[in-house]
Amino acid sequence: MTLDDIIAQHHNQVLARIQAAAKRAGRPVDAVGLIAVSKQQPVAAIRAAYRAGQRAFGESYLQEALTKQAQLTDLTDIEWHFIGRIQSNKTRQIAAHFDWVHGLADPGHARRLSEQRPVGRSPLNVCLQVNLSGETTKGGVAPEALGPLLEHCRALPGLCVRGLMTLPAPSEDEATQRRPFRQLRELRDRFATPDCPLEVLSMGMSDDLEAAILEGATLVRIGSAIFGARLG
Asked: Which positions are tagged coiled coil (predicted)?
């Protein structure tokens, strides 16, 4: 099988899992979007996923992402999502080269991203990251700090707060997997307003996407189930 065949097959399998989970949750099959996490994957793999119909891609390492973007300028409808840790000295390039940021948790980073969003571009879509496990190795704000961060970000003209994101501790048990996803949904319900509905819940990866969708995920971030191990 060619690289195109392998990735197309994997992509279809992931879409089938998403649709099955949505049906199980009683949600429309198109209620959940897919971000293909292409960090540490070669450009050829991204092109293969694109040919399979994928348009949203997630990258965690800025310089690697910029190199790929420069080689993929012919694919004009790709949507780039930054899903890595944000560093202050990299906010200008993130603001200039990405459509979405999923791990925003620092008011200073939010201000810089807003100020550095290029003139003429639509506001940068952002998901605020909440740390529900208390793990110091995970990014995100504590639940009790979400309100002030949300208020701060909503006031910034270069940002559009679209929703919330979390990265829970791994578990093989579905009930345990569902708990933090449920907590994030409940936080969204608490803070959503008519003019800021927080309609996006960015949660769920290759090993727990079903649990995330059962609790309301609208975007799942899938890497290994599409690309497998690093392909090059």
From this structure: none
